[in-house]
Each structure stands twice: as C-alpha cells, then as structure tokens.
C-alpha cells in the first residue's frame, strides 16, 4: 500500500522469485508485442517488496536472509536492479544491506517529510520556551488537518488515538498540508520570529541535539531555516551513504 500500511503489521511477505519472474516476462512480452524493444532497453528496474514496511507507529526491518532468493534472482538480469518499496525509516545499516543485495533504488517519501515535521515541532518548542506564547504553529497545522480531512481520513481511525496519529503517524499525512496557505504563513512566521531573536544554544541542544553539535562545530548557521534544512536532510543522508557504499 503506498504511503504505509493501514493495519498494524507483525510480519511481511517478500516477493517470491517466481512472481518477480512472471512480472518481468509479462512486461517484456508486452513491450515486444507493441514493437517497443528500444524502449524496453531503457528499463532499469522493477519494483518488488523485499520485506520492509511501516504502519502508523512501527517499522518492519529488512531481513537479508528472507530476501536472499529474491536478491539472487536479479543477478541473472544484468540490465536490471530492484526498486525497494517503502524503505522509509529503515536503519542506515539496513539501507546499506539493501543496496548490496541489488535493491539499488531505495524509495523514500514519508521518512523525509516526517523528519521535516519533527524538526518544525522542535523549533516550535524552542520558540515557546524562548519567546513565550502558545503552540500557535502546531495548532494551526493540526487545525487545518481537522478542517480538511481528505488527505488522512482513509488512513486514520476516529477515536482516542486520532490526535496521536495526526501528528506522529509514520504515514505522515501532514505532508499533504505543508502547501496550504494558512500552514505556509504559520511556518514562515515561526521561522521569522526565531531568526529575529535567535535562541540560546542550550535550547537548541535540548530540542535539536544533532543540529546543536553542527552549530558548535561551525558546520551549521544558527538560523531557523538552516536548522530546518539540516533536520530534514538527516533523513536523506543514510540513503546517500547506502548507495555510495
């Protein structure tokens, strides 16, 4: 399911090599029947399930042993690699192992926007402690989500856990609201207030410890936008390292 599983997961089935082979053969034949052999020569990957997924609050980690047969299958197709479905939230070691096992295209989406939301929440906490006031930014974001539920109502169930899911679900349906005008204004105001009155490093250490280290070492400016960019980029760096290893 794109965007994470709706149900709570305990285990996940890996794509069977026979299924991968059947999919590949069907597509190869379809291209040939349509006279698209030249286009087929530009196909570089096929999407499979290597046994990684996430639901609202937990992650199914990659198990190389369970994917060994699938990994071996693609070795007989020298022009192709695998695209791994839903590698969000995998550990750096898991990502590196996926790349070594021929899952060379690592799909990620909510994992990056979750890191952005997490950093914005931390900046909002810094603002509250440093400049006073209430959680206006967070209240604006969650208020827009409740007023316009189209992007999350098929994912989150009503009930006691809804508040938790709206803010913290790994499916990160918040990502569809960042372009909303009211949310954009609230975000711009938050960053502007912190830039106009930079917080003490003790608060940055409390809420954004990785960015605090980077500021102390001179690798990062103490600007709200820079802190936000670095917090978001932290979710991407493991993918860069995994694919460059």
UniProtKB/TrEMBL annotation:
Question: What is this protein's name?
Answer: Class II D-tagatose-bisphosphate aldolase, non-catalytic subunit
- InterPro entries linked: Aldolase_TIM (IPR013785), GatZ/KbaZ-like (IPR012062), GatZ_KbaZ_carbometab (IPR050303)
Q: Which Pfam families match?
A: GatZ_KbaZ-like (PF08013)
* Native organism: Burkholderia theae
Q: In which pathway does it act?
A: Carbohydrate metabolism
Record PANTHER family:
D-TAGATOSE-1,6-BISPHOSPHATE ALDOLASE SUBUNIT KBAZ, N-ACETYLGALACTOSAMINE PERMEASE II COMPONENT-RELATED
On the tree of life, the source organism's domain of life is Bacteria
């Amino acid at each position: 399911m794109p965007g994470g599983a709706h149900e709570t997961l305990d285990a996940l089935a890996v794509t069977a090599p026979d299924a991968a082979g059947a999919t590949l053969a069907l597509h190869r034949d379809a291209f040939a029947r349509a006279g698209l052999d030249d286009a087929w020569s530009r196909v570089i990957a096929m999407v499979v399930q290597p046994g990684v997924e996430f639901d609202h609050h937990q992650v199914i980690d990659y198990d190389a042993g369970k994917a060994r047969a699938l990994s071996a299958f693609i070795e007989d197709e020298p022009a192709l690699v695998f695209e791994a479905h839903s590698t969000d939230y995998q550990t750096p070691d898991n990502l590196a192992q996926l790349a070594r096992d021929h899952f060379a295209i690592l799909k990620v989406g909510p994992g990056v926007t979750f890191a952005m939301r997490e950093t914005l929440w931390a900046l909002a906490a810094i603002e509250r402690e440093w400049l006073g006031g209430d959680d206006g930014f967070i209240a604006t974001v969650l208020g827009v989500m409740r007023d316009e539920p189209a992007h999350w109502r098929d994912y989150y169930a009503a009930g006691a856990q809804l508040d938790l899911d709206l803010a913290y679900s790994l499916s990160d349906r918040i990502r569809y609201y960042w372009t909303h005008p009211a949310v954009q204004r609230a975000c711009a105001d938050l960053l502007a207030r912190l830039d106009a009155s930079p917080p003490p490093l003790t608060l940055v250490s409390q809420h954004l410890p990785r960015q605090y280290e980077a500021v102390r070492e001179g690798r990062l400016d103490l600007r709200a936008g820079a802190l936000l960019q670095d917090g978001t980029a932290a979710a991407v760096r493991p993918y860069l390292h995994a694919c460059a290893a």
